[in-house]
Structure formats: C-alpha cells, structure tokens
Design goal:
This protein has nine helices and 14 strands. The chain is of the alpha/beta class. The chain folds into two domains: 57 residues, no CATH class; 193 residues, Vaccinia Virus protein VP39 (Rossmann fold). The strands form three sheets. It has a seven-stranded mixed sheet with strand order 6-5-4-11-12-14-13, sandwiched between helices. A four-stranded mixed sheet has the order 7-10-8-9. The chain has a three-stranded antiparallel sheet with strand order 1-2-3. Strand 2 and strand 3 form a beta hairpin. The radius of gyration is 19 Å and the shape is globular. The two termini are 34 Å apart.
C-alpha cells in the first residue's frame, strides 16, 4: 500500500517540486500553518509546540529536508539525552553549531535549553541570511558568518556543492583573498566558558582538516558531547574514530551522525 501511494505521489508531482512541498506542508502533522511569501519564495511556518515561526525557502531548496530531519525527526535526540543525564534542569550549557545551515538545529537546541549559549556558524551568505530570520527572537543564539577553521587567521570562499548539490551541502575553500573569515575551536573556547557541553560539526568534508593529525586537537579534551556528520567521500572515518578513542571518547553511530561521548567528562548509558 505504501509503495503504491509513493508511486502515485511521485507521478502526481513529477516536475513540480513546489507543489510537492505545498502538499507535504499541508498534510504534515507538525505544521499548524504554512504561508508562502511568493515574492521572497519562502514559507513562514507555525509548528506545533513552537512559539516562534520558522522560515524555509521554497523548492528547489533543501530547507524542508533539513526541517524534517532536525525538527520533525529530532535527529539530535540522543545527543540531548546524553546531556540531560548529566546536567541539572535549567543549568546553562554552551553549544557550538558548526555548519548551522539556516539555523534550524540552533533553534532546536535553543527551544530545548533556554539558558544555553549557542554559537551558530554558517559561512554561506544565502544560508546565513535565512539563519538570521530563524534565530532573530533568540538572544541566546550568537550567529557568526564564519567558517570553522583548523588554524587561526585563515580566510575562505564558498566552494562547490557536495553530493546532490543541495543548499545544505555547500563547501568552503581556503583562500588568501577569501571573503569569509575562519574561526578555530580554540578561539570559540576562549570566548565562552572554556568547555563545550555540545559540539555539533557538519561542515561538508572540512572535518578532515579539523581532525588532521598535524593540527592541535586539545579542544576534544574540553568537549563533553560531540555530534559530527563524517563525509565518507574523504575516507576519514577511521582516523577520526582513532583520534576520539585515544582522547577517551565512546562512539555511537546514529544514522548519518556519529555521537562521541567524552567519558572523562560525562557518563552515558544508551
């Protein structure tokens, strides 16, 4: 039955991704109201259990796919469980959202942890513009149009898209004339409390530079929970796992995400 419905669904909306998105929003049990701002080609969404609206771009943007994964499917739930088993309710926490896209993951964490401080990094200009719309009512979120860098003083340009070329797959390229400043994890540690309670990294393959064996990785000793999407196109999963284990991390795989628990700082039973 499900297979037949999917075939019919694809047939009806073939060649019309905008109508498909409209249909998906109308039938979603999570969406209370969806209003299309046609001139801007974006939707203003009111979601159940959320006070402030969300904004996503119309198709062919991949924004709805991110919304579905992060908000509807709560893909960061296990990471939240690890935090909540080790923190008192209402305790302030520091979160890094590196590769924040349009700010939906930062919103998810901010709504769940209203006393948190969230550094939300997104280098791509159009994504960052959407991020600002999504986080404008959240003073705990600090938006930074910067690229996560392995070394201080580096600059970057936006490179080619990875995989399916979606908005969530924009890469960065180091360039001496780059328009986007880089920021290291050590610099972020210096700005905050000296610890990351949760470090989320989804930077489209650039994690290979952050975890390069020649780069200082002392930030791992000051990170309690790490959530990273490892891009296997670069054959870096094994060395990243080796690095984490040497630093005392337990590793869990959760779909596309890898969860690292720093057993020197935190306890977690799955």
């Amino acid at each position: 039955m499900e297979k037949s419905f999917r075939k019919l669904y694809n047939l009806i909306f073939k060649g019309s991704p905008q109508k498909r998105l409209q249909y998906d929003l109308q039938r979603s049990s999570f969406v209370s109201k969806a209003k299309l701002k046609e001139q801007e080609a974006l939707y203003r969404l009111e979601l159940k259990n959320y006070t402030n609206p969300f904004f996503i771009r119309n198709r062919p943007s991949s924004d709805y796919d991110v919304l579905r994964q992060v908000i509807f499917e709560t893909e960061y739930e296990t990471a939240c469980t690890a935090l909540e088993l080790n923190f008192q309710a209402g305790e302030p926490i520091t979160i890094i959202d590196a590769g924040a896209n349009i700010g939906l993951t930062s919103r998810f964490f901010a709504e769940r942890y209203p006393l948190s401080v969230i550094y939300s990094l997104e280098p791509e200009p159009q994504n960052f513009k959407m991020l600002l719309k999504n986080v404008e009512n959240f003073g705990t979120i600090k938006p930074l149009q910067k690229a996560l860098s392995a070394e201080q003083g580096k600059r970057f340009d936006i490179g080619k898209s990875m995989r399916d070329g979606a908005d969530w797959a924009k890469t960065t390229q180091e360039s001496t004339t780059g328009t986007i400043p880089g920021i290291t994890l050590q610099e972020l540690l210096n700005e905050g409390t000296g610890f990351f309670d949760l470090l989320k990294i989804d930077i489209e393959g650039a994690e290979r530079f952050i975890f390069d064996s020649q780069v200082n990785q002392d930030f791992l000793d000051r990170t309690k929970v790490l959530v990273i999407e490892i891009h296997d196109e670069f054959n870096i999963r094994t060395p990243i796992y080796e690095t984490l284990r040497k630093r005392g991390y337990s590793i869990l795989e959760q779909g596309e995400l890898t969860l690292g628990i720093n057993t020197k700082l935190i306890h977690f039973v799955s």
